[in-house]
Amino acid sequence: MRVSKTFDFDSQEFYRAIRFMGRFNPATRWVPAFAVGFPLLMFYLVVVRSWGRISVLSASLNMLPWLLLGAFYLALVPLMQRTWARKATEYDPSLRGPQTRIVDESGVEVRGANSHQHLSWPDLRRIAEGPEFFLFFYNKRMAHYLPKRVLDAAEIGVVRELAQANAGARFITRSQSLRSA
Fold first, then answer.
1. Are residues 81 and 45 both part of a single domain?
2. What is the pLDDT along the chain (181 residues), one digit of tens a residue?
3. Quick one: 110 and 32 in the same domain?
4. Residue pair 133/145 in contact by the 8 Å Cβ criterion
5. Are residues 77 and 135 in the same domain?
6. Can you give the C-alpha Rg of the chain in angstroms?
7. pTM of the model
8. Is 139 exposed, middle or buried (0-12, 13-18, 19+ CB in 10 A)?
9. Which of 54, 88, 122 is a domain's end point?
């Protein structure tokens, strides 16, 4: 069984793949907790504890910097990911031009402009299947992606079978990834 597909690099699609990759990065889980939790803590310390002594205007002015800080942290990761996706071809010349992904019994082969990489199944840390992509993680945070839009239903089944057979517990399906994210 072998699936070989070529597709053109698309920065919007790459952005969606980066967002999906981020669901598997433990550090990105703490950013929303910090962005929401810290302003709530400050709301309690500044406003709730002094409720009878301060006016609504004073409470609003005291909370404004903390709300802005929380909004900044909530927007930071998506803005960084969007910038990275938009400038990806500048950062990584191998993304220019057609991209080829080959999945077979030996592993995953990734080809780009003047670039060729073969990852055997034991070399992959995790394989994730989402609604739009298969992700092949070559380290904790980074993955090569194979968009499902270029695959037909039979080829999606073949990639899924190869990942299940060769990666075992390191293969995470869509329903598992939604629970673990």
1. yes
2. 899 999 999 999 999 999 999 888 777 777 777 778 877 887 788 777 777 787 878 877 878 888 888 888 888 888 999 999 999 999 888 888 899 999 999 999 999 988 999 999 999 999 999 999 999 999 988 899 999 999 999 999 999 999 999 999 999 986 554 444 4
3. no
4. yes
5. no
6. 21
7. 0.79
8. exposed
9. 88
Helices marked H in 105-168: 153-167
The residues pairing with 108 across neighbouring beta strands, listed in sequence order, are 103, 119
Q: 């869509």: which residue's tokens?
A: 174
Report d(CA 128, CA 151) in Å as an integer: 16
A 10 A CB-CB count for 147 gives 18
SS3 22: helix
Could you please report the per-residue DSSP string of 31-48? Answer: HHHHHHHHHHHHHHHHTG
Domain boundary among 59, 88, 117: 88
Element (H, E) at 104: strand 98-104
151 closest CA partner among 134, 136, 167:
134
